[in-house]
């Protein structure tokens, strides 16, 4: 499960970095404990280790974990990154329960067999008051992209299938909308504090415009990330939720 191989940027990273900063303020001098489930080769783990976090990456792929370790060494943060072979289905066997200040499940919920069980495992891995960050594939953006590309049969299937799936050969088990994502997290006992889009406008910008105005693209993305209408068609949905203190 190499779910973490695409690191989000922009608003997603800012939200995660802010959570790290808050953990550092709560315990000055201590490295915030981060658990990255399905973290792949470290696209998130290495940047977070650079921020001073002690990051444990759980992934079932030994090749991905080997790449993670090489990447951490090259970045000079290998002492802060721990690779553990395992899966979300048996997360409690791989890492201590209730030990993480921040738990990442980026690109995870759309590929697991049981999304509800996965959310429960992510929540249990966090400390009371700790945060869980999830990043998932948006269903309506997939519909829109296929419609624009003229792949109308696929667009119809994504729009009418309960899981937003193209069939048994689809590598994605589910694509989510904002409402169902919030419900999934809340049913898992988490309090959703932030729900925003990733790639809301940036993913639609033509290459020529991107090259001419990267600063404007970033500004547009920041402005659009939380807009409800744009959130509905975001390619990826990001939620930051918290495990209650009691």
Highlighted features:
single chain; 246 residues; alpha/beta; Rossmann fold; seven-stranded mixed sheet; 11 helices; globular; disordered N terminus
Task: Give the topology, please.
Blueprint: H1 10-26, E1 33-37, H2 45-50, E2 54-59, H3 62-75, E3 81-85, H4 91-94, E4 100-106, H5 115-125, E5 126-137, H6 139-148, H7 152-160, H8 178-187, E6 191-198, H9 207-212, H10 214-224, H11 228-231, E7 236-242
Parallel strand pairs: 1-2, 1-4, 2-3, 4-5
Antiparallel strand pairs: 5-7, 6-7
Helix pairs in contact: 6-7
Put the structure in a nutshell.
By secondary structure, this protein is of the alpha/beta class. The chain is built from 11 helices and 7 strands.
Overall description:
This protein is of the alpha/beta class and 246 residues long. 41% of the residues lie in helices and 20% in strands. It has one domain (3-138, 176-242): Vaccinia Virus protein VP39 (Rossmann fold, 3-Layer(aba) Sandwich). It has a seven-stranded mixed sheet with strand order 3-2-1-4-5-7-6, with helices on both faces. Strand 4 (100-106), helix 5 and strand 5 form a beta-alpha-beta unit. The chain is globular and about 50 Å long.
Tell me, what is the CATH class? Alpha Beta
Structural domains: how many: 1
Q: In angstroms, what separates the terminal alpha carbons? A: 32 Å
> What is the CA-based Rg, rounded?
18 Å
SSE-based structural type: alpha/beta
CATH arch. level architecture: 3-Layer(aba) Sandwich
The strand count comes to 7
Per DSSP, what share of the residues sits in E-state strands of 2 or more residues? 15-25%
Q: State the share of residues found in helices, binned by percent.
A: 40-55%
Give a quick account of the main beta sheet: strands, pairing sense, barrel closure. 7 strands, mixed
Low-confidence stretches: 1-6
What is the global morphology? globular
Query: What is the spatial order of strands in the main beta sheet?
Result: 3-2-1-4-5-7-6
Number of helices: 11
Average pLDDT, to the nearest integer? 91
CATH topology: Rossmann fold
Name the CATH homologous superfamily.
Answer: Vaccinia Virus protein VP39
């Amino acid at each position: 499960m190499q779910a973490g191989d695409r690191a989000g940027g922009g608003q997603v990273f800012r939200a995660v970095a802010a959570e790290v900063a808050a953990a550092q303020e709560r315990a000055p001098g201590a490295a915030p404990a981060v658990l990255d489930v399905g973290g792949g080769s470290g696209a998130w783990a290495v940047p977070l280790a650079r921020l001073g976090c002690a990051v444990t990456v759980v992934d079932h792929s030994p090749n991905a974990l080997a790449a993670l370790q090489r990447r951490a060494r090259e970045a000079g943060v290998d002492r802060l990154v721990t690779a553990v072979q395992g899966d979300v289905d048996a997360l409690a066997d791989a890492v201590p329960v209730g030990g993480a200040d921040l738990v990442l499940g980026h690109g995870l919920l759309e590929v697991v067999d049981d999304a509800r069980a996965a959310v429960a495992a992510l929540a249990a891995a966090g400390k009371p008051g700790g945060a869980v960050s999830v990043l998932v594939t948006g269903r309506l953006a997939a519909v829109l992209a296929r419609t624009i590309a003229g792949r109308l049969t696929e667009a119809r299937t994504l729009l009418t299938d309960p899981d937003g799936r193209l069939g048994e050969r689809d590598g994605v088990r589910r694509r989510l909308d904002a409402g169902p994502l919030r419900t999934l997290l809340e049913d898992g006992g988490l309090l959703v504090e932030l729900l925003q889009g990733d790639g809301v406008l940036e993913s639609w910008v033509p290459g020529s415009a991107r090259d001419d105005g990267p600063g404007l693209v970033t500004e547009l993305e920041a402005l659009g990330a939380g807009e409800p209408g744009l959130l509905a068609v975001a390619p990826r949905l990001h939620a930051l939720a918290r495990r209650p203190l009691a």
